[in-house]
Amino acid sequence: xxLSTSTGRVDDPDAQPARVDGxxxxxxxxxxxxxxxxxxxxxxVASFNDPARAAESLASGEHSAIVGALxxxxxxxxxxxxxxxxxxxxxxxxxAAAVANIPVxNIPVxNAVGSTNAPGPVAEARVxxxxxxxxxxxxxxxxxxxxLADSTNPLAKVVLARKLLLDTSPRLxxxxxxxxxxxxxxxxxxxxxxxxxAGDAHHGRHLVGASPEVLIRRRGRQVSxxxxxxxxxxxxxxxxxxxxxxxxxxxxxxxxxxRFVVDALRSALAPLxxxxxxxxxxxxxGTSSMWxxxxxxxxxxxxxSTTALDLAIAVHPTPAxxxxxxxxxxxxxxxxxxxxxxxxxxxxWCVGNLSTDERSGALRGADGITPGDGEWLVAIxxxxxxxxxxxxxxxxxxxxxxxxxxxxxxxxxxxKLRTVLRALGADEI
Length: 429
Ligand SMILES: C=C(O[C@H]1C=CC=C(C(=O)O)[C@@H]1O)C(=O)O
Known about the structure:
Blueprint: E1 28-33, E2 38-48, H1 51-59, E3 65-70, E4 79-89, H2 93-99, E5 124-131, H3 134-149, E6 157-169, H4 174-184, E7 189-194, E8 205-211, E9 214-219, E10 222-226, E11 228-233, H5 238-249, H6 252-269, E12 273-277, E13 283-286, E14 290-294, E15 297-301, H7 308-315, E16 323-324, H8 326-337, E17 346-351, H9 356-362, E18 374-378, E19 382-386, E20 392-400, H10 406-424
Antiparallel strand pairs: 1-2, 1-7, 2-4, 3-4, 3-17, 5-6, 6-16, 6-20, 7-8, 8-19, 9-10, 9-18, 10-15, 11-14, 12-15, 13-14, 17-18, 19-20
Helix pairs in contact: 3-10, 4-10
The structure holds ligand ISC.
């Protein structure tokens, strides 16, 4: 069941070209739990730190699948591999049940705020540093608001983030951290991927997270995206919780902040699609910690040779993680925060040419996959973990516009950080 021969750099001396089956494989270095399937990949017949080069290797048939992560900064190295083995499975029953129960604002959410069936902490975790401290983040937001309110400055939106560093004991593994995130976040895409392909500085590091945001998904000719922007923290009291969602849904500030992301996706996808359906207004999307404004976008691909990876490269980074205009926002972020690593990047998979046999068995319980299909999540609500030391870095950010309130923005990042901190049983300092 060989899918391609490889001419790329061989990281795993025992690696064979990609297989889509259930046979015994080396340990998985990539896993993504979508809402209706699970993708796992192991072994690496080649690795790429340049996404364009990885996309070319799919287009040429050199490799039959690419998995991994794109960095936030498109100039920074990515961490992509052509795996030796890739598998697709149907979801576990608990995730399938959760999907059938997507919360609405006036229904108390099972397994969410105030969850009773959360697993215990996977390791003892302790926040050891905050970069910047909360007060400094507030000052950064206030400074950005002044820039955004200046009509002579082209910057209209910028996403500012803050980072926490944690120690764990006993040493946390990416697998156990991922399992804890999966148990607590039934409505998010859960992922882990090794970052070593990005270069020596990333050796032994993994990106693990529970993202509610689909950057891009391709199934056959159908392209979809589910951008999120505009947020408010959930509340354990269902009445207050519902009020917060309703307030968010009518907040001019948040609707404006959201529109930047939808407009950017429309501009990037319209030239690649024969049809693009973009609802006029967003709807409310719930995670275990947050309410967001989200817009489900669906289109039909003009050229079937455009892969999910091509699409991810075309749309990343959106104003959900960067800003508007993109180049000015990126520059502002790099000058303010420095390197963000893979936070704000994208994590996903993409397949190239699969034989008919391989395709029909690949996505059991779903519609089957076709050449070029894949899914990329926005890398938020995530942490980079050093598997050799068990130390972690996690980030949370928020979109800043001219009428943002700095205190509310700090509170928003505090709430967003809970996705990772709850899975670790840790508190912010
Ligand atoms: C940048 C993050 O969230 C994005 C996704 C949803 C809502 C967002 C917001 O309201 O600002 C952000 O655009 C993050 O979680 O770190």
